[in-house]
Amino acid sequence: MTPSPSAASVLDLAPVVPVVVVSDASRAVPLARALVAGGLPAIEVTLRTPAAPDAIRAIAEEVPDAVVGAGTVLTPEQVTRCVDAGARFLVSPGWTDALLAAMRGAGVPFLPGVSTASEVVALLERGVREMKFFPAQAAGGTAYLTSLAGPLPQARFCPTGGIGPATAPDYLALPNVGCVGGSWMVPPDAVAAGDWGRVEALARASAALRSPRRAGGTCR
Hints:
220 residues
């Protein structure tokens, strides 16, 4: 059955959300199929290239087991365009009230970006409990998130930025982390070469990442 963020949080679909930059929309479908086959159904296609909207549309139409989302969402106009293309969740590196209102009105799950306690408190005030922590490593990493867990236990995060397979389990061990975002399973040379077997193998290894506390459990 296709995972659905309406039935469970995007943060709970897998321990890792691939953060994908697609320069050629024709590669989006085989790339998504490799990631899904490796156990990573939630795929964030970033709006860093002109090909991104077409890539989102292609994945939404041709890879039914994928939960495709749009990342690097910066404007209300991008919110509308991405949801129209088939995005099933939205991710932003930061937020404003206008952007937050657009994401809230889009009818799909969203993860606004934060990097300070004040931003977290402001989102909690607005009824938002799930957020992107970005840029994770540069903003304080696991030590910062550990500090937030005490006074703000109701906030849950998807840390993204500078995280790799060696450090991901440290983030996943934290009680306020649902999953992490990263791009190590989609190396540019493998994507350029169409080496989907390598992408699938890296995705499978990423899907198996669990902290000792969560071994055998779900990413919650």
